[in-house]
Amino acid sequence: MKSILITGSSQGIGKGIALHFAALGYHVFVTYHTHKELGEQVLDEIKKNGWSATLIQVDAGNEASVQSLYKSIAATTDTLDILVNSAGAECGGNLETLTFNEWKKTLYPRLDGYFLCTKYAVPFLKKSDNPNVICIMSSLYENVDPEDPSACTADGGTVSFIKAIAVYLAKYKIRTNGVGPSEVETSLPYWVKNGSPEFFTQIAKDNPLGRICTSKDVAQTIQLLVEDPGKFLNGNIIYVTGGNHLK
């Protein structure tokens, strides 16, 4: 059975990716940081469909925690076919309103987390016949938001990381690509909670294709990259925005 590790998969985009690949027959390593109950809900949903998964806690930006994660994985398998770096946090705020702690909270899981989770995945990926690393980002690398410098910086760092390791890991036939969605439907509860549900209506209206991105769109894009017949897609950033990043 093929296996996939998805960081940040107890909710949001990561959850959608986990359910998609479980349905494809992968054993899914679902991870959570602080919300164990959400991780258990994802695990239950996978298992009630007769699919295969394991739930593991990890702080993706903490080296000891990441090492513990891979020790847990090693108890099940010595091979990973796909690593999806999806753990992240976004605080928002411009240069004047954003605190230093909020800045670090955004960059910590993305830059530190993506590095650590990829570094310790390599021995597992080397044993796959089609190993892939996928890094989730946003489309802010193309369309910077002056009101959100931390997210823009996280994306910039992620793109450079993808390019560097795509070349480095190629000698092991490990391919690395990035997937950058626009605003995804899974963040709707946040906007409802903060009194701006109309935000999504406007986003759909403004999108060239007339709708918002879904976690299914993201998962299917990852599947496309992984199942590349020539196994030659490497070092790319695929924007899943309906063309919105070009505006």
From TrEMBL:
Domain of life: Bacteria
CDD domains linked to this entry: SDR_c (cd05233)
Family: Belongs to the short-chain dehydrogenases/reductases (SDR) family.
PANTHER family: 3-OXOACYL-(ACYL-CARRIER-PROTEIN) REDUCTASE, 3-OXOACYL-[ACYL-CARRIER-PROTEIN] REDUCTASE FABG
Listed name of the protein: Short-chain dehydrogenase
